[in-house]
Write a sequence for this structure.
């Protein structure tokens, strides 16, 4: 059976393999070292800052976590998954037929997330996570009349009036809460079903990213990225948080637009638009996903038409239209969210620490291999950007296309950081952006993949076994 499709002249050309010699490795190791140093400094400064006045509002900055070395039921499984991916992942990614690779990557990601979550045990690690006082499942009974709940949703965002929403409900548009209301309506109520739903949908984002990278940058780079996506360190926070679900939805929106742009599929364009519209009603920060979406169109603009744009926009607008007609106005709710944010920890946490402490948390979430891959991305950015902006440019190379996609995610993340609306907890909140940073690992030399995968797994295992993350 062939594992590669026949070449398509409209697809980006493949790049030669990255250099694998010592000279090629040394700058990557330096980049990883800088990432590790950033984490160490953030931990040291954060610990001293928190101990002096408590205003960081995090016991183990830059993570929202507390020191708690432990093992649990998921420890053997997590070690087994990590060892298997490190030993066999690169070879399988190179050899499996494409569709089987997608399913294998998705299944491996689920096994990785579940095993990490089960280090805390089934109840504490999965079933209880979305039922705590800050979470969505605490308000299911207040949505018996959904239209009435939506009409009055903004009345309960700000602390003060009776019956204000829990922190996560108030901090997100109602699409997030409605998801769990609908799960309850179809008989999948409770924390266990909610946790499994978030993990399965979050893990599916691995397949979505692979599909997008293949469509935009070619199959070879997608295959190189596959083991790193399946063994992502931020899996620690995908299991179990609703942000994993948000990340999966956003990833499929981008993937489907890439399919629509490269295969001229109106159905994929409409599905992408619907998912993007829904993404904007899952989190107030996720309209920033528009930047990677626009980058998809930028990458494909010389080889394909703008045909997907109109169906994408039409479908995307149906979601805000439906919510607005039902009684919830996003633009009215967001200023109230900002007020609520500064009523809580957001009003205490200092921007001067978190604006760079967030980046240390992000380094732990994406891993040191991604830090090395981002160095290569940034090195390739000038030529890729100049080529993309040239009015008569040829189709981008595979490396240039991947560079632009990763760069878009990085810029989205930096915009979220500079906004001041993401002070702490970014290891969890920024998962929709992390998914698109990990493909930078495809630019690393082939010969060092197992070592980098081991480093990725080590970060996740250390974090999950040394601290209690609270998510």
């Amino acid at each position: 059976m062939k594992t590669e499709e026949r070449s398509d002249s409209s697809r980006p050309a493949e790049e030669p393999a990255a250099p694998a010699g010592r000279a090629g490795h040394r700058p990557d190791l330096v980049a990883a070292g800088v990432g590790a140093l950033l984490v160490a400094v953030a931990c040291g400064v954060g610990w001293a800052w928190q101990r002096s006045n408590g205003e960081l509002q995090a016991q183990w900055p830059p993570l929202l976590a507390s020191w708690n070395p432990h093992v649990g039921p998921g420890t053997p499984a997590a070690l087994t998954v990590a060892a298997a991916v490190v030993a066999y992942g690169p070879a399988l990614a190179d050899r499996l037929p494409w569709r089987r690779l997608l399913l294998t990557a998705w299944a491996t990601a689920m096994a990785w997330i579940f095993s990490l979550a089960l280090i805390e045990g089934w109840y504490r690690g999965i079933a209880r996570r979305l039922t705590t006082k800050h979470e969505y499942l605490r308000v299911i009974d207040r949505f018996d009349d959904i239209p009435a709940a939506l009409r009055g949703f903004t009345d309960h965002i700000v602390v003060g009036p009776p019956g204000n929403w829990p922190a996560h409900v108030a901090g997100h548009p109602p699409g997030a809460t409605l998801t769990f209301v609908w799960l309850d309506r179809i008989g999948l109520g409770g924390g266990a079903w909610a946790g499994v739903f978030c993990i399965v949908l979050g893990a599916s984002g691995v397949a979505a990213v692979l599909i997008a990278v293949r469509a935009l940058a070619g199959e070879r780079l997608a295959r190189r990225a596959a083991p790193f996506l399946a063994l992502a360190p931020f899996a620690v926070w995908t299991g179990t948080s609703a942000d994993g679900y948000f990340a999966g939805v956003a990833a499929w929106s981008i993937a489907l637009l890439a399919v629509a742009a490269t295969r001229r599929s109106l159905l994929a364009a409409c599905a992408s638009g619907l998912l993007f519209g829904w993404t904007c009603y899952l989190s107030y920060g996720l309209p920033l996903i528009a930047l990677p979406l626009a980058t998809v169109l930028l990458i494909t603009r010389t080889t394909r038409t703008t045909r997907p744009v109109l169906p994408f926009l039409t479908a995307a607008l149906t979601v805000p239209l439906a919510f607005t007609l039902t009684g919830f106005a996003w633009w009215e709710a967001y200023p109230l969210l900002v007020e609520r944010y500064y009523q809580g920890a957001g009003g205490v946490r200092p921007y001067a620490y978190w604006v760079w402490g967030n980046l240390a948390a992000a380094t732990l979430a994406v891993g040191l291999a991604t830090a090395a891959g981002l160095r290569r991305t940034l090195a390739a950015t000038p030529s890729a950007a100049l080529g993309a902006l040239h009015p008569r440019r040829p189709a981008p190379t595979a490396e240039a296309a991947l560079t632009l996609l990763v760069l878009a995610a990085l810029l989205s993340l930096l915009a979220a950081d500079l906004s001041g609306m993401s002070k702490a907890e970014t290891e969890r909140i920024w998962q929709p952006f992390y998914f698109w940073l990990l493909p930078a690992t495809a630019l690393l030399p082939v010969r060092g993949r197992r070592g980098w995968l081991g480093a990725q797994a080590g970060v996740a295992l250390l974090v999950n076994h040394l601290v209690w993350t609270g998510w």
Summary: The radius of gyration is 21 Å. The chain has a mean pLDDT of 92. The beta strands are 66-67, 467-468.
